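note to self — DONT lose this again. spent like an hour looking for the file last time. sequence + predicted structure for the chain T wanted, 455 res
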Amino acid sequence: MFKNKKKIFSIITTMLVVVSSVCFAATTNSEKAKLEIVENNICTISINDIATFEKKIIDYNLEKKEITLQLKVTNTAEPIFNKPTEIMFVIDNSTSMERKVSTDVTRLKAVTDSAKNLATELLKNDLVKIGIVSFSTGDEEGTITDATLITKPTDVKDTVLDSISSIANGKLGARTNIDAGLTVGNQNFSEDCESKYMVLLTDGLPNVSIGNSKIGYSGTNAENTKAKLNALDNAGVTIFSVMTGVGNETESTTGLTYKKLAEEVFGTTQNPTVGKFYYIDDSEITTTICETVLNDFIDPSINTLTNLKIVDYFPQEIIDNFDFAYVSDPSAGTISPTINVEDNSIVWTIPELEAGESVNVSYKLVLKANIDESILDKVLDTNEKVDIKADEVNDVLSSDVTPKVRVTMEEDITPAPTPIPQTGSIYTPGLVIGIVIIATMAIGIRYYVFSRKMK
C-alpha cells in the first residue's frame, strides 16, 4: 500500500510540474520589443592563405526587428589570365617537319593540328590574344628573314587558326633558325601587352642563328639561341619550349648525342634554361601540346579549393526566439534548406572555388511574435561558431567571432505580473489550472476509496 501511495504522489507531482511549465513559461509578446545591434563584429577565417571567409551583418531593419547576415568566401589568388595577355606561337617549318609520325600524318600536321586546338582553348579567355610566327631558313640564312610573322596577336579565332594552317600548307625551309623565330615573335608583342608568353614548337636543334650562317649544332649557334632565351626571360616573356622527334643518336660532327646538344640550349625538363621545356617523342605531340601545355596556362588546381564545406552553428536562444529564412539562394554550391535541429547548424558545400572567384549566401533573422523573457536585456550571439573544411585544408578551421544583438522592451512597458502563456490566450492559465485541480481531486478520491477497501 505504501508503494501505491508513492506512485500516486509521483503522478500528481509530475502532472503539476508539466502543467506549470506550460502555463507559467516566461514568455512575452514581442510587439513592443526593440532589437538593437550591440557589436557588429565580422567573423573572418583565412583558408590556406589563398581564400578568405567572412560572415557579417549586411542589412538590418530594427523597426521590423530583423537583421540580414551574409556568408561570403573569396579565393584571393589571381588567375594566370588576370590582365591583357599575348601568346606568340613560334612554329618550326623546316623540311624535317615533313617526316611521318604515322601512316597518314606528318610531324608538321600533328604539331599544327595540336597548336590549333591549344589556340582554341586559350582564346576562350577574353584577355588573351595569339600571334603566329614560322621559322626555318630562307634565301639569306643566318638573318632575321629566316622567320616570318604570319599574324600579329589577335583574339579573332578564325584568323589564328587560318594562320596556323598556312604553315602546314606553306613552303618549308632547309634549316632551323630558332633565334630568328624568337626574335620576330618578341618584336611583335603589342606595346600595351602586360603579360607575354611564347610557345616554341620545333623538331630540331638550332643549326643556324642570327649573325651566323655557318651550320653547326654546337658552339655559336647554341650560344646565340640560349642567350636569346635568357634575354627574353629577363624581359618578362615566359617561354614554353616543345621539342619533338629529336632522338638520342650521336651527331657526327660533335660526337655528342642530340639529346645532349638540346640540353646545351634548353636545359632539361626538370631544370630548363627558362620557362618550361618538353623533350618528347612524336607520339606525345598531341597530348603534350593539347593537355600539358594548356594546363600550364589555365590549370587552376594549384589555387583551387575543392569540396569546401562551411558549417554555421546557431545558439539555442537564436533558434528559439528568431525566425530563420534565406534571402537568396547561394551563388554557388548547395546549402541546408533549414537549420538542423540536431546540432543547430546549416551546411554550405561548394564543389570548387577557383582563383579569383567569390561566392556568397545570405539569410535573415526575424524576432518571433512571442519570445522568452530571459533574453530581454541580454547580449545575444547571432551564431555559436563557424567551421570550415576543404580537401586542401588539413585541419578544421574555426571561429566564434560573431555579430551580437540585444532585445529590450520599451521603458513604459513592464512585464505582466502573471506570466503570459505561449498561446497568447488570457483564459488559458485558468482553464489549465482548473483541469489540474479537477484531475488532482479525482485521483485523491480514487485513492481514498481504494485505501478504504484495503482496510
